[in-house]
Amino acid sequence: MRSISFAAVSTAMFIAGCAGVASDRVMVHRTGPDELLKLRSGPGLDFGIIMGLPDGTVLNRRDCVTEIGQLWCRVSLADAPEVQGYVSADYISDI
């Protein structure tokens, strides 16, 4: 019985430790038909634009930070994970 408890605790600790590393799939939404969500080099409007992302673009969300009252998420493109940057969390949703 003791080994089962140890295994359960070890597994829970491993999962909790990986929680910050894991990514979630999200999708760009609410940008509008003629607008693009700006993928930026850092979390904020003062950072350079890497590219524009249309509605429906699937992203891997890594982590999110708040900068000047705005939530920004570090993401990579699902189809091209080497392309990474930050987007406003207001324009992404879980899929």
For the biggest β-sheet, the strand order reads: 6-5-4-1-7
| Global morphology | globular
Mean pLDDT over the residues: 84
Report the span from N to C terminus: 40 Å
Rg, rounded, reads 17 Å
Sheet with the most strands, sense and barrel status: 5 strands, antiparallel
Explain what this protein looks like in three dimensions.
This protein is an alpha+beta fold. It has 1 helix and 7 strands. The strands form 2 sheets. It has a 5-stranded antiparallel β-sheet, with no helix packed on it. A two-stranded antiparallel ribbon has the order 2-3. The protein is globular. The N terminus is likely disordered.
Task: Report a brief summary of the structure.
The protein is of the alpha+beta class.
